[in-house]
Write a structure and sequence with these properties.
The chain contains 15 helices and 12 strands. By secondary structure, it is of the alpha+beta class. The longest helix has 21 residues. 37% of the residues are buried.
Amino acid sequence: MAGKVFFHVDVNSAFLSWEAVYRMRELGETEDLRTIPSAVGGDVSKRHGIILAKSIPAKKFHIHTAEPVIQAVRKCPALKLVPPNYEVYKQFSDAFFEILNKYSPDVEKYSIDEAFLDMTGMENLYGSPLESAVRLKDEIFDTLGFTVNIGISENKLLAKMASDFEKPNRVHTLFPNEIAEKMWPLPVGDLFLVGKSSVKKLQNIGIHTIGDLAHANLEILTSVLKKHGKTIWNFANGRDMGMMDDSTPESRSYSNETTVSFDVTDAETAKMVLLSLAENVGWRLRQDNARAELVSVMLRYSDLRRTSHQRVLPQPTNITTEIYKEACRLFDDSWNGEELRQLGLQAGRVMEQESVRQISLFDTTDYEKLEKMDKAVDVIREKFGSNAVMRASFLSSDKIPPITGRRKSREK
């Protein structure tokens, strides 16, 4: 088959499936959690007291991922709740990716339970894309005991959309010539990155299906949803527009993320979180005399959906302000207006040698001054503690503490 071929492989109800297999295979239990109303949930008394995964029978009681455990139990008093076992889930995830790596040399981990595979040119090894997807799906089930959905297309966006079609244990294609038949009739809320807030705004202007969005007037969309309107309009027409990067990420990066103790519902608060993360990442880069030329922002919504967006900087940098400004631009391009539970920031394509900044006639920023300011703050914090110097914006907020400690070592 000519052209690119991508698979999106997604574990069906990952945490619950892995919990069920573990309990039957390792603990000798006879009851399969996947066949009864059940869910994996956290501690009710704490912030993570939410439903992390639920069985198909639990869906009949309208139990949703990310809803409070207490609310789920009210809907289904007989709901069997089990606590999460993250160490077990990591072992299943590692085994899952081990199988994926047998099928393609280019596997992009999108989360603990889903990945993109570049299957271009693999026909001689595994047969047609459909044949190889069925083979992969069956091998995962036969070896590890849980099911997956696989979406197939020429880009990652359409592959991901295809994997969300009928579940569980299915393979679906969604090539450009199938968009009108398979994707356009779906509710607009089924489109990647179209959340509840966007759905309401779209419905108010008469857009109810993905097809309506694909054929909508772009000027009207951008007037209602700003940059996000253009992004999802492209998605509705089958173009991923780089939101899912086809390139292999650099092997070394500095990253930090935080789960806030409340739902972030406004851009100002979200950008304060990003500023806190940028301070940490910038400080660590400077500690290692390193500079990064790639910035990436990760957002996780209250229903646990995740998205990320990245961009290459004009010049490698370790200046906190420069990293932060780029993170804000990425946030504005990515956020769909819904409540956020977690934010992350990563600086990649790292180089340790001193870099010479190329001067632009159109950029009047005093980078030397910014570098000296960062270094002065670093010295004070090293000597007197991380809170010795604090940005005024943090002093006015009791919600967003500055994150200035070395939270994660650099990744290889």
